[in-house]
Amino acid sequence: MKKLKRLLKRFFLLIILIVVVVLAYHTITFSSQQIKVEQVPEIEVSDKVVGRLAQAIQIPTISYPTHIDTAAFVRFNEYLDNNFEVINSQLEKTTINEYSHIYKWQGKNTLLKPILFMAHIDVVPIEAESRGEWTTDPFSGKVLDDYLYGRGSIDDKLCLVGALEAIDMLIQEGYRPERTVYLAFGHDEEVSGYNGATTIANYFKQKYIKFEYILDEGSLVTEGNMPGLNRPLGLIGIAEKGYVTLTLTARTHGGHSSMPPAQTTIGVLSKAITTLEAEPMPATFKGPTRLMFDYAGPETNIPMRVVLANRWLFGKILKKQLSEKSTANALIRTTTAATMIDGGVKENVLPTHASAKINFRIHPQNTIEDVANYVKKTINDDRIRIDIDQKGQNPSKISDHKAFGFQVIQRTLQETFEDAVVAPSLVVAATDSRHFVDLADNTYRFMPVILNNEELKGFHGVNERISIDNYKQAIRFYYRLIRNSCQ
Ligand SMILES: [Zn+2]
User: Tell me, what DSSP letter sits at residue 238?
Assistant: First the structure.
């Protein structure tokens, strides 16, 4: 008996030893994916750029769900024509559907495929309830404590005017790119891009123009969001999630509310919704999420590196932890959000039907069909009809993280945001670039700014603002990216 015990003890010790060796091996071989970059010369950016972005912010180019304020967009056209003399003299401008614009900066070598930078002119409205919470008028373009305030100061006039400023500087220095550079500015991104980006994409298709890579808004550089990483993390979106809305309709017999059944139509529907919330679609570490960990993981502290290098062992715990934070949860699974509900006509009448809309943001590992099947199986209730909204869109294809475009963006990011760690990632919201899928093999989604969590709240929220330093860095990024891409 004693002998057997000793044998078992040795056996367990051996197992533990093997696990430790495997953990150590994976951790040691979890090698850095960062590029070694030389120190680059500092680029002087004039203070006058602040005024030009402020002017853009002062034009309230708002997209409302049903219409756009056309007068504001006319003013924005004038703004572009009157403010960028150098650009207007050197680049060819084409206006699409009155308010969207394409700029072409002809390169010297026509054998090289062009590149395209995208941005959008429109901004989201200011919620009436939150207007009072703004430190300054959302369309004043005011500078307070080295921050430029206003709707669009990040999303997305920063990218639009920032790219123009970079080209302006390059032209003034006498630079001419080898590769042709295009800019495309849509005017209705915030309401799906059907008049702007879609028409711009058709224009390029008709001209048989294909891009080496496309860069649109999307991920950015953040701090303090990756456990164990005490450096800024620059995420380059290589894919974006799809989305679909399902309408659940419950139907039962109505009647007088004085003699109700155990569960009314509303009860049936509510149960289905709570079931879907309690059982979200499974988390996955595949696709862009896997690459994000592969790139960021080796740069984290030792405990985190052991965990991320050994997802085969710690994957389950890691998924559970990430699921608890909504930002991280959105990166690892198709998310479920009940967004609208409707049912009942009077407080003493049992409703015969009730319906709810559930919005799903689809991870690249899933499709619209997977979502519909999952919902049907999970609810498992014949009293509920499931309708798929036709406006849904599957996730984008995944761009190559080894291709020229990714490498050059990574290099430029590391040159501009010193000490930043670069990783491919998944963009959880939709961008205009989804209309451009056929125009390039690789589309990347990155906004060249470093934002802390407080600043991030400004996205579509209150006190959207950008620090002057940050804005100048964005201009430097575009400046270097053009040079790095076009020599
Ligand atoms: Zn945007």
Answer: E
